[in-house]
Amino acid sequence: QPLTNTQQGCSKLITKIAQRSLSHTSINTQTRGIQSSLKSQLTQEISQPAATTTSFRIIVSRDSGLNM
Hints:
Blueprint: H1 2-47, H2 53-62
C-alpha cells in the first residue's frame, strides 16, 4: 500500500512539472513574438519616421527586459 501512494505521488509530481514547463514554453513563445513585433515596428520607424517615434521609444525604453 505505501508503494502505491508513493507511485501516485510521483505521477502527480511529474504531471505538475510537465504542466509548469508547458506554461514556461508558452511564456517564452509569447516573449519572442513580442520581441519580433517590436523589432519590426522599430525597423519601420527607422526607415520612415512617423509622429509616433518619440512615444514608441519611451515604451521600448520603459521595459529594459526586452533585448532588442
